[in-house]
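Reading a protein record of the kind used here takes only a little practice. Think of the row as the fold of the chain written in a discrete alphabet. With that in mind, consider the following protein and its fold in token form:
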Amino acid sequence: MVTSSVEVENETPEPEQRLWTAVIARTVEEWVSGPKRLQQLAEDFLFNNEDDFKTVCSSAGLDPARFRGRLAKLKSQRLAVQHGSVN
């Protein structure tokens, strides 16, 4: 499940923080396995949106730059699998 890969900096998150963590987890799930349209919308948010992405990550207790970096690694791995260049 995607939520296990979302690291929250605070060990006992507040309800609002859990809500934003769920929003991010859902967005990542849509990016990974949603219908094509939702995949595109989720990817645009995760990789191209600056202000809202930072706000949502911060509200979830995540470092936006670090989280986006981890997502970029996943993206490159997915592309490698799709193109058959996995080591």
Q: What stands out?
A: The longest helix spans residues 15-33. The chain has a mean pLDDT of 87. Helices lie at 15-33, 36-48, 51-60, 64-82.
